[in-house]
């Protein structure tokens, strides 16, 4: 129980400092314990995930819309940046805890 409380406390501090990646890590540890999440813990987990994925989704939408408009397809440099971004985005998604937890 103490481990859970410590990680919830870390998540709250991370939220106040707007360090959402650290908040996700703390809540991931809470979610992997063999205890049912409280309402507060579910809310913290939701806030952490929302604030980490939001900027990535916005970037993804911008790049996707530019590609759809065929404005940057032939630019090798931009395609390289796009490929790197896709890799970064997918790696970030892989590290998220299972939403069912």
TrEMBL record:
Coiled-coil regions listed: 10-50
Pfam families: 14-3-3
InterPro entries noted in UniProt: 14-3-3, 14-3-3_dom_sf, 14-3-3_domain
Keywords of the record: Coiled coil
Transmembrane intervals: none
Coiled coil found in the keyword field: yes
Superkingdom of this protein's organism: Eukaryota
Domain 14-3-3: 10-66
Family recorded in the similarity comment: Belongs to the 14-3-3 family.
PANTHER family for the chain: 14-3-3 PROTEIN
Protein name: 14-3-3 protein epsilon
